[in-house]
Write a structure and sequence with these properties.
The complex is a heterodimer. By secondary structure, chain A is mostly helical. Chain A has helices spanning 2-12, 18-30, 35-58, 65-88, 92-116, 123-141, 145-161, 163-172, 181-186, 188-210, 216-239, 247-271, 274-295, 303-327, 330-352, 359-382. Chain B has two helices and twelve strands. The chains are: A mainly alpha, B alpha+beta.
Chain lengths: 392, 184
Amino acid sequence: MIGEHFARRWNEAGVIDDAALQRIVAWENANRRPIWLWAVAGMGALAIGLGLLAVVGANWETIPFWLKLAVDIGLNALCAAAVFVFWQRGLAGPREIAALLLFALVLSGIALIGQIYQLQSAPWRALVFWLAICTPFLALASTTRLVGALWFASAVTTWFVASDLVVDLLTYVGVLRGGERTWWLASVVFLKLLTWLPACLFIVLGCARRLWLPARAQGDLLLQLAFAGMIVATSLSIAFAASEGHIAGTLALTAVAATAALGAGAALWFATDGTMRRATLALLGLSFAAWIAGLLPSSGGTLAHDVLRSLLFILYWAAIGWMAARAGWRGLFGIAFTVIGFRLLILYFEAIGGLSATGLSLIGGGVLCLGLAYVGWRLTRGVPRRPAGAPL
Amino acid sequence: MSRTFTVALIATLVLPVLALAALVGQQEYLIANARILNVPLVGYDPRDLLRGQYIAGQFDWDWAGGPSFPQSDGAVCVLQGDAPKPRVRFIAGWKAGDPADSDCRMIVAGRGEPGRGSVPARFAPTGLDQGNGTVHIFVPEDRASDLERLIRDRPGALTVDLAVRANGRATIAGLRVNGQRLGR
């Protein structure tokens, strides 16, 4: 129905002729998917699931622990077998759903064991264990972007939950001095490194993933998400100044960040080519330079420093927009323009200070918004669209 | 797909199932090869015991020789006796493999926090300490408020079975209310 609606709209605009319209309408009629029937079936399945959960939940205390564990491990085994059978029969959709279900079931199993045996270890241990035993089967059995995105989200969550471990690891390898753990955990510099490192790590993983042809789309998605994370990490590094002190430690952390960036660069060099290689390496280099600039300490938050950081932020996003325009990443260009617009708007309100609530300043802000939207509209239309199916 | 890929896929699918089963087996093995020590649990802040589905509390030890000792890692030596509250002595710096005094019937490794003023001395076994000698005990949601009231009104009624191994490491083997084991 939606396809038919758009086909008629395009026909009225003269984009497609009457014959094409008839063919589209005929195809849509022949391949109708009764969404409302799916919705009713879905609601039924959801009701059964919720009912089962309610019955089990109400009797949870009376169920012996061994039965809970046996059912949980049995369900995991059943799901693993289903993944294998679906893979053998070439049923991609069911295989992906079963893999995702197994991924979730394993986590619930770890939580159940932790509850029954009163395990008190830190949450990151459970999450790392979960990823360690699930990543191998996800890497072989799953190739879709959805599962890739969920794995990415889980890995990122684990990374940030395990931030204590990162400090311990850096202390163990001699990057940080012992006895400064608490200071580093609360320091802005460490937080900047904590956001930078996973971005580099996931670039390497995304590159490795896209080398396997069936999982190339998943690898590309991991790369996109990693670069999105890197841009966020860099923007935060520019926006938040670190307090002065611990110069040696900061230099050591910078060296770690540089090593991670070099690793990510090497992975991009081997896994990509042509425009994609040039664009991604340029974005990595630009982000690293801006991230380093963000590490420069701010002396007491003076106005000059604040303005400098704002300009650096705008320059960084302008460079991203320029690169996006050259590479044909229209979406990223639009985002870059919007971010710069917002930053300019914030600068405008910061500049007029206490007058920000007056009618005239609001009118001025509104005019600025409209002007930016107009310029953005004109500029975005000028960016050539990437050909369909092109990488990244 | 090649035979190698099939074998690799089967191995990766079996891995999480085996890992979960191994985790259960490890816990059962640890409990089976440990000696059980029953310790009362008390609330460290009676106004604020529940943490989601956990009760936050402290083990209630009977300190032989007083509760003053240096704040450090070490162990408690559990002395002979069958009183409800285990009588213990703190050994600062004790490590697995170190000899135990002849009067110790059991050694539990952990961290000790000396008592100051009205604050009692605290000791939580390694791996169970959630900071400052506090432990978190998972309790069923529908019994959480009853157990919270029990700890507040009748200190010592809720006890924990610690499974203590020869190397001093302890895990929670179970909970008891008035001596009756709560279901896992």
